[in-house]
Amino acid sequence: MSDRVPLSVLDLAPVPAGVDAGEALRNSMELAQHAERLGYTRHWVAEHHNFPGIASSSPAVLIAHLAMATSTIRVGAGGVMLPNHASLTIAEQFGMLEALHPGRVDLGLGRAPGTDQVTAAALRRGPTQAEDGFPKQLGELLSYFDGSHPRITAVPAQGHRPALWMLGSSDYSAAVAGHLGVPFSFAHHFASGNTAAALAAYRDAFRPSQWLEQPYAMIGVPVVCADTTEHAEFLVGPSALSFTRLRQGRPIQLVTPEEVADYEWSPMEQELLKSWRGPQVIGDPTSVRGQLDDLVERFQVQELMITTMTHSHDDRMKSYELVANAWQSADVFADA
């Protein structure tokens, strides 16, 4: 038995410049099959809206296709932004996925909108489902799965509860996860300054449940791996530019690394890049493995979820392959 923690995939179904959304979604299916062959534990897709470079706006629909295209890897949402939806709808969707693919479906829940406020209002048809109503909505969702709702029988959700995860970038979500006794996935990939505090809050609040006896924590890690560190730094350029444009309120599709190589960064963008760089794991296989080992040691997590954003789908596929091979060298993936 290896003492290495499992690795998993976080997929945003990126739509790089020159690619349409249909091709991006087919790329996600190919990546899930690739990840399954390589031994990754789970493949999650994340709900985002009104981003020109992200196609994963409907996790349940995409997960259904990913589950059909694979046979052993766990598939799920990392996550569904619960305030954007009626709890009954999510219960029915993910209950159906679990009924069709028993034992393979994860439902990761977040309370942020996953978009800007205008788009959030359009999704919610007004301000009725605010983030401060999350605990009530979460309780309602759970009642559909366990059959305790006083008036509604949610079919096929009742009796087909997927594995429930809480997602978050704050102590609040961590405490909720601990209180419920469910696994917690922290967004280290964009909130690395709060990783240690949130994980501590989760472990302090944890209460054993029928689903989990001990805390189980996972962090998202942005990784680009290539044959050489120099080439990995070249490939990560489009992600860096995309980040700065997003922070400026001008989201874009991933451009080519060649375009970024000739780009002149403004002083403000250079400052933004300092925060972007913090959680990045970039390098050749040996370097990446060492950096991932350091994260596991520093945060004492039970799993790592890798997210890789490159302009080329082939480069993304190769990065995941290089990481898997490096992680398994001299040993194998740990059991999930």
From TrEMBL:
Which cellular component terms (GO) are annotated to the entry? cytosol
Task: Kindly give the Gene3D superfamilies that the UniProt entry links to this protein.
Answer: Luciferase-like domain
Residue ranges annotated for the Luciferase-like domain, each copy included = 8-297
Known InterPro entries for this protein? Answer: Bact_Lucif_Oxidored, CmoO-like, Luciferase-like_dom, Luciferase-like_sf
Q: Name one GO molecular function term.
A: oxidoreductase activity, acting on paired donors, with incorporation or reduction of molecular oxygen
| Pfam families, sorted | Bac_luciferase (PF00296)
Query: Which family does the record assign?
Result: To bacterial alkanal monooxygenase alpha and beta chains.
This protein is called what? Putative oxidoreductase
